[in-house]
Amino acid sequence: MAFFDIEGYEPVWLSGLKAVRSAHGDRLRALVGKRLQHVHLTWYVEYGEWLQDAPVVLDFGDERLEITHWKFDELSLTWNTIDPFGKAEWNWGDPDEPSPLRWRQDIYPELSALEGQVLQDVELLESMYKGVGGSMVALGFVFLGGRFTVFNAMDENGLEYTEPGADYRKHSLAG
Predict the structure, then answer these.
(1) Rounded distance, CA 146 to CA 141, Å?
(2) What are the distances in angstroms from CA 173 to CA 111, 120, 140, 144?
(3) pLDDT tens, 134-174?
């Protein structure tokens, strides 16, 4: 069974800056200069909230980046395996029940405001904390009109819209 019963999606877990940069640095760098079309989040219909455990999907038209954080420091970045338009909702394994999950792009106005803007930089944000979350890597996406970070919110995805604080070391991929 696929992760969260999302057809075609199988996360590949990495831990630490070196592993993430080695596996995905070039492809993340290639996103710079592309226009963000949408950020798709999984909406849990019954509870009326974002399901933070499911992937965050960044749609750049010709590339879709799928981001999932898990445990304390594991990160999966996959590419073009999720089609939020082709299958906007799914039944989580029980076809006789109404769909509890659906993709949405309109949950947070901070993200909607960045749609249509050109990506200026992708930052790998290395956690400065040692120990449990010491090898955690977040991803920062920088635009002329703002930014957002997808980070590990203790075994799920979190979103921030401000400049990363001193608890992260920034590694820009733009230059």
Answers:
(1) 9
(2) 21, 10, 10, 16
(3) 689 999 999 999 999 999 998 899 999 999 999 899 999 99
Tokens of 29: 């760098």
Rounded CA-CA distance 66/76 in Å is 8
List of E strands, 54-136: 56-59, 64-70, 74-79, 89-90, 101-104, 119-127
125 contacts 171 by C-beta, under 8 angstroms: yes
The two tokens of residue 161 are 């819209």
Spatial strand order of the sheet with 157-160 comes to 157-160, 146-152, 137-143, 119-127, 168-172
What per-residue string of b and e applies to 110-122 under the rule 16 or more CB within 10 Å gives b?
Answer: ebeebeeeebebb
| Residue pair 111/143 in contact by the 8 Å Cβ criterion | no
Residue 91, Cβ neighbours under 10 Å: how many?
A: 13
pTM over 0.90: yes
